Every structure is written in structure tokens, then in C-alpha cells.
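Problem 12. The chain below contains 183 residues. Write out its predicted structure in C-alpha cell notation.
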Amino acid sequence: MKFTRLEIPEVILCEPKILSDDRGYFSETFREDKLEKFLRFPINFCQENESKSSFGVLRGLHYQIAPYEQSKLVRVLQGAVLDVSVDLRKDSPTFGKHIAIELSEENKKQILIPKGFAHAFVALEDSTIFQYKVDNYYSGVNDGGVIWNDEELAITWPELQLELSEKDRNLPKLNQLNLNTLW
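Solution.
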């Protein structure tokens, strides 16, 4: 597996090696030892989640606050998404900046999103299956978010008819968050 630090260096692109022949393909999609060697610290995933989304469904921007903050390793099993990570670490030089990258069944890329980031994706194909591992359990009372179209974040979303949950349509703007309570 190849690991690459992106423009926000704590966000890691993970590209598995794909072994293909006329029967199909094989790939190691996760190796804790190799990831920890690259990161130089342990990561212990304890929960794995999967969602299926129709074309144009946008989920996010979500995060978990302390003590349930989460790192995520995200990937697409079927279809494609535009995946977005936003730095919400108040003392970070990249605070409010984001990484947007296409993840798909074809490119098999994965993104490791560290604690302190909000995360979202929009399905670029119908019946997109999105999977992610987290290193802390979900807690509904520690769940938070930022509105997907906050002008301050300047995220360029695809020009699609987007479908959002009621919860995601009513998330606050970045400047409405109390950053001292997040992490």
C-alpha cells in the first residue's frame, strides 16, 4: 500500500496495490502495521460503518466531539463519491481548509481523516456504497456538524441536485461553532 500526505499533511491518501488477472482482482485494503509505520503512532479501529446512497445524496459535514472524536479510514465499494475533509482544529495553520478528492470503486483510493476534522461526501453515482472504519465509538450526544455550503469553507461541490437529510440541512456555519468545546 502506498501512503501520501495531501495538502493538509495529516490527511493521508492510501492507495492499495491491485493484483488483477482474467479472474478478477485481489487487494489488501488495510494493514494496521504498515499504516502505523507510516504514521509513527498506533491507530486502533473499533467500529466499521457502511452506507448506500442514491446519486446526489450528500452526507455531512459531520464530526464527533471529545471524548468521542474519531479518525476515519474511508473508501468506496461501489460507485463514486466526492469526499471532503475540513480541518476544524482551532490552532491549526490549515484551520477551515479542506481536501476534496474523488473516491471510487475503480480507483480504490482511501482517505485517512484524522481527529479534529469534519467529513462529508456526495454520491456521484446511483447505488454508491461507502464504507469507513473509525477509531472511537459513535456517540449521538457527541455528534456535531457544519453546514455543507458554508461560504467560509469555499468547497466546490458538483453541480447536482443535492439531496440532504433534515439534520444536514440545518447544521450551523463554521463561525457559529464553539471551537473550545470540540476537542
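Discussion. The mean pLDDT is 96. Students who got a different answer should revisit the alignment rule from Section 12.3.
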